[in-house]
Amino acid sequence: MVREEEDPKHIPMGIAQLASIAINAGHQVQVYDQNAWRKDDAIVKEILISDEWDVVGIGGITTAYASIKKIVKLVSRCCPKTLIALGGGVLTSLPKETMKWLPEVDLGFVGESYKTIVDLLNALDSENPNLENVKGLILRKNDKIIFTPQRELLHNLDELPYPAYDLFPIQEVYFKNSAMMYSEEGMLATRRMDINGSLGCSLVCKFCYHLGIIGDMRYEKNENGEVDRIAFDEEGSFTRNIRFHSTDYIINQAVYLKKKYDVNFIYFLDENFMTMDVYSKRTWLKGICKGWKEAGLVPKKKKDGTWDGVYWSGTSHATLCNPEILKIMAEHGCSHLVYGYEHFDDRILKTIGKGSNRKTNLRSFFWTLKAGIRPIPNQIIGFPTEDFDSLRMQMKAWDDLGIVTKPHFATPYPGSLWFTEYRNEILDQYKGQGKKFGLSDDLEAYVMDLGDASRVSAVISRNFNAVELIGLREMMMHKQYDKIDQYEKEWRQKHGIKPGQPSTLVDEDISKFKKIKISA
Question: What CATH number is associated with residue 27?
């Protein structure tokens, strides 16, 4: 798969982890990383016909569906006797639909595959393989698509081997793309690699999707007792299975990367660092920092701007961080933290399950700066009840913080609460697109169109259309309050809103989230 929105900066950890697991179980594995190499079809064909493969495994996130579809067809033509397996979020988010859209795919991995990969390969090596006995798969049988029993999650992440980094072009591609434009140290990084220290998040953001890795996935049966569909958490009913590596595992992995690859920067891919720290009663991050120091990894800058040791970075949350832990992290090499602030309007924040507000967002920003860490605010516009006042609140916060950001657009990704809620509206927006582009249906057209939310796909805003959102974002970034004021007058006239009435087409319905269940 290829993530076309950016250069190849991150080794695909899912494939790297599964490759390592399969190798440790005695299976032979080779990897071709198309996202890294980005070669044309002729080169990919040469690779596919260079050997006789038992299984070709392809994986990726939903936004890579277009490239995955292309590669699947290429594999089918070049390796007609080879089993094609698909995994990752692209499959798990819409398993039956994806199997319908990609008839060349023989089977799919549903949810977490740490155990499934070995069971599948062992079954294929047996004399009479029966894949229906392998948990966590979706299969084709007699012109039907069936699910095997649900795969349980791996409780102890420390059982996992380190990813098979050596199977990927580290020197040729990934080190060359080490720089991250978030902090001075990030920009100067020349040998960056990634670690995934945890899985999951305790929050219930409507735009987010976890696809089973936090216990949020259910197998639903039809009247015949057959598993008919995969469903995820719904509003008012949430389950969170919090899992993280021990601090010893993480430090040993960091030392391994330093010794073997001489890394000078490590990026933690964790969805939310602070969730794990809070769940561990504030011991996890302190343990990582303590171990970083004991292992001699705390960076020391030289006069030429380079450093000994390893800088690192990750993610944070406005309500879960505090000055004490931020200070400790900074002292042990943390250079920047990405904050999913999303918005600075309390009315909007109350509707998305973020658990934060304008005050906590602003406070955490300055706490982080004071600690010596660069805070990186992620922003979104185009929420369902977004209006002119909420856009101005975003801009006012940027003024207060002395920053400018380029917001993403609110996007209902498959597997998210938003996708469930707005599925019919999405199909209305893409009506006829499937037929127009020769696809299976209009939903596939939407998935083909999905990107990283830096551009508009399906719009869920009730007040603004796609053209308006793009234009408003441009004016926001240039601090053009006057232009936004002028457009609001035109917008009110267009929609027949009388003087004194709010500039909105909808009545507010603030979602109230029930207390969620968190388990180890």
Answer: 3.40.50.280
Give per-residue burial for 309-341: e unless 16+ CB within 10 Å, then b. bbbbbbbbbbbbbeeebbebbbebbbbbbbbbb
CA distances in angstroms from 42 to 30, 36, 169, 197, 461, listed in the order given: 19, 16, 20, 38, 43
Q: Are residues 252 and 128 in the same domain?
A: no
How much is the pLDDT for 1?
Answer: 61
User: Which amino acid does the sequence have at 260?
Assistant: K
Contacts (Cβ under 8 Å, ≥6 apart) of 79: 48, 49, 53, 56
CA–CA dist 70, 72 (Å, integer): 6
Lowest-confidence segment of 28-37, 72-81, 199-208 by average pLDDT = 199-208
Residue 510 reports pLDDT greater than 60:
no
Pure H helices in 273-379: 273-279, 284-294, 323-331, 346-349, 358-371
- In the predicted model, is pLDDT for residue 515 greater than 50? no
Mean pLDDT of 19-26: 98
Pull the structure tokens for residue 13.
Answer: 């950890």
Name the residue range of residue 376's domain. Answer: 177-204+240-515
Three-class SS state of 141:
strand
| Residue 35: HSE in the Cβ half-sphere, 13 Å Cα cutoff | 28
**Total tally of structural domains belonging to the chain:** 2
User: Of 237-251, 401-415, 484-498, which gets the smallest average pLDDT?
Assistant: 237-251
Print the SS3 string covering 450-506: CCCCCCCCCCCCCCCCHHHHHHHHHHHHCCCHHHHHHHHHHHHHHCCCCCCCCCCCC
C-beta separation of 10 from 60 below 8 A: no
Q: How far apart are CA 433 and CA 477, in angstroms?
A: 32
Residue 364 and residue 370: Cα distance in Å, rounded?
10
Quick one: 373 and 277 in the same domain? Answer: yes
How many helices (H) and strands (E) in the chain? 20, 19
CA distance 457 to 460: 10
Q: Collapsing DSSP states into helix, strand and coil, what is residue 327?
A: helix
Burial class (CB in 10 A: 0-12, 13-18, 19+), 298: middle
Q: Cα separation of 355 and 347, whole Å?
A: 12
Contact 470, 389 (CB under 8 A): no
Q: What does the block give as tokens for 172?
A: 């040729």
